[in-house]
Amino acid sequence: MTTLELSSRPRLAAGCRLGENNQQRILQMPERALRLNGPSLEIVQRCDGKHTVQQIVSELQQIYSKAQPQKVEEDILGYLALLQKERALDFEQ
Amino acid sequence: MSAIPNPLALIAELTHRCPLHCVYCSNPLELQSRSNELSTEFWSRVFREAAQLGVLQADFTGGEPLARTDIIDLVRAARAVGLYVNLITSGLPLDESRLAALVAAGLDHIQLSFQGAREEISNEVSGTKSHAQKLRVLEWIKHHRVALTLNFVIHRRNIDQLEEMVALAETSSATRIEFANVQYYGWAFANRESLLPTRQQLDRSMAVIKRAQERLEGRIRVEYVVPDYYAKYPKPCMGGWGRKLMLITPSGDALPCHAAQVIPGLSFENVKERSLRDIWERSASFQKFRGGDWMKEPCKTCDRREQDFGGCRCQALLLAGDAAATDPVCSLAPLRPKVDAILAAVNLAPVSADSGAPPAAEPLTRPSWLYRQNPA
Prior knowledge:
- With 93 residues, chain A is of the alpha+beta class.
- Chain A has three helices and five strands; from the N terminus they run ββββαααβ.
């Protein structure tokens, strides 16, 4: 399935993987690469087909406990939508 | 020299040998023979130096990269130093066990080239029977965890079949389709008048692509490269000369782009003699058109000079006779009328005998193609 829901379990699509370059973590994809900073790296590392979107949200709300929980959730959903548009994710329901 | 950003991708032209003879091949007219090809050891060193220089991805291309008997070792060597490995292939020299070995060696992404969605035009353009094998390869790839892009080279003879090509991609495991109109260098330049689409065809193709992009969002990324002869501004060729990409020829020459050898007065360093970093930062060829000091008017004072870098140097040479000229496809270029004249000839030529009818799928006469040869 290709829909992004709180219960779905995103995982990196084939040909998308974490890499490193000049001490910078990156997401390698067909014909492009994304630099990952703190929160985006925390998100991508949890796209393993095991975490649900809801679990990713909860865990990051704990890590970034000073941020507004609602804002953390919105940011995560926005970032996952971007990765989906790049076709970097598969979703397990 | 730390002001020079590092290259992001290495285009490794592993060989010029190829089972296809495509009439728009991007290889130079003068091809390198097998005896001049770099060894496994040299390529492995090139990959290591590239990774140290900050390169993220290696594009294995050719010719047909699978013509190299050491291709599995080359994939392994590039992965071992941390590079992301793309294989750009016709799929012809592939069977199930070789595919499995490539994936096991760490291949990240296969770009399978198609000449069309139908057997007849595909075989005509590639000068060989190739289409049925590509369909077999699509099935085999479904059994492997590897990214797949379908690459379609688009031109006048197949631009009306885009819907069929999308449908073909949807039956595969592809997450990306790249429709790239032919770029007019090398063999394609020689066949240009038979390859350029008409304005009407191009407009229709843009609408088809837009619909496919909307419908397939989140499933398949659809990318479209238009023929720059029809563009208002030139493409930022290679992302700017010596800014992002480095190409290594089968014999080890380091080039700033595929066609750079057509530019007179440029000489190229070889990776057997100098390190990649040294070539990238200090060679005369990579510095020649880097930045904006070489630019003439109208580029020199143009607001877009940091966006398109004056366009393509090889196209400037081919069309204006001067590699430092503004790319003549630019609407601001003094020589744009020359491109307009080429387009006028293409658009005025009768495509179909019936006035007002859509272009016929197959013209009455076949173009007299100049087929790409194989190296000695």
